[in-house]
Amino acid sequence: MGRKIAVVSGKGGVGKTTIACGLALALAKKGSNVCLIDLDVGLNNLDLLLGVENKVVYDISDVLKGKCRISQALINDSAFEGLYLLPSARFEEQSFDAKDVKLLSDKLVSMFDYVIIDAPAGINNNLELALASANEVLVVVTPHVASLRDADKVISIVKGKEFENVQLVINRIRGDMVVRKEMLSHSQIQKLLKLPLLGVIPESDDINIYSSFKFERISKSGSVDAFMVLAHNIKSDKKILFDYTSKYKGLLGVIRRNLKRSI
Ligand SMILES: Nc1ncnc2c1ncn2[C@@H]1O[C@H](COP(=O)(O)OP(=O)(O)OP(=O)(O)O)[C@@H](O)[C@H]1O
Ligand SMILES: [Mg+2]
């Protein structure tokens, strides 16, 4: 039986879709079978991010209404054999029953090693849907006050339910700013939010994560490496910290920090 992991946040736009996609790609690259569920109803982004928007025929609402079978709605990524997407409903007025979505995710988890659920922004019914369909949660935050304050709210909701695992992912962290003490470090954020840290993803100028994985492009920010570490940490009890500050330490690091400051 696989694992069902919901990717949630308090504040919108902090990188849930990016994290869900990058983690799924990294797990698929490590040989796992992964199904991404896009629960961002009406604002479906995952099909665009994976470049499969032209392949979408059926979506999650068609499956839930019995208009098609699950296998007809799943889209396989031709570049990553083990990666499938269940696209989101394209119309915002769609509302689903949490029990039906849970049933669907239970079916999917019997077919895949990982079911990763991309939750919509904010604290609303659709967040409840995402939580109902998972047994583990990743809370995504950025190192900014608004994101941390709103994460607190979502963490208290998540803690009120019985999840096997609730972990933190810090997105858009900047090694240069952390070294200069202009941004909270991962350990300061972790202390504030009191959640185990799954991993950190650095701020990246080239965050087209799909093409970085597909073309094995060396990302300047190391975001592919950071996602591979995230996937390792999901699979293993021995967690590794991606060192987002290493480039900014020492003499060369001072030069890089100053360069970053000037652009
Ligand atoms: N590590 C990163 N570095 C640079 N840009 C990033 C990073 N992570 C996400 N972004 C950018 O931030 C924007 C929002 O990201 P994303 O759509 O993943 O957030 P979200 O939490 O899913 O948003 P929503 O709440 O609307 O669903 C996108 O333009 C994305 O490319
Ligand atoms: Mg999103």
In short:
By secondary structure, this protein is α/β, with parallel strands linked by helices. It has helices at 16-29, 46-49, 60-64, 70-73, 98-109, 125-132, 145-159, 175-179, 186-193, 209-214, 223-235, 250-262, and strands at residues 3-8, 34-38, 75-77, 80-86, 114-118, 136-141, 165-173, 197-202. It has a single domain, classed as P-loop containing nucleotide triphosphate hydrolases (Rossmann fold, 3-Layer(aba) Sandwich).
Provide the gyration radius in Å: 18 Å
Q: How many domains would you count in the coordinates?
A: 1
Named once each, the bound ligands are: adenosine-5'-triphosphate, magnesium ion
DSSP strand content: 15-25%
Percent helix, as a range, is: 40-55%
Number of helices: 12
Judged by helices, strands and strand pairing, the structural class is: alpha/beta
Question: Count the strands?
Answer: 8
The fold-level CATH name is Rossmann fold
Give the uncertain stretches in residue-range form. Answer: none
Q: Regarding CATH, which class? A: Alpha Beta
SSE order: EHEHHHEEHEHEHEHHEHHH
Distance between the termini: 48 Å
Global geometry: globular
Indicate the CATH architecture.
3-Layer(aba) Sandwich
Mean pLDDT over the residues: 89
Classified in CATH, the superfamily is: P-loop containing nucleotide triphosphate hydrolases
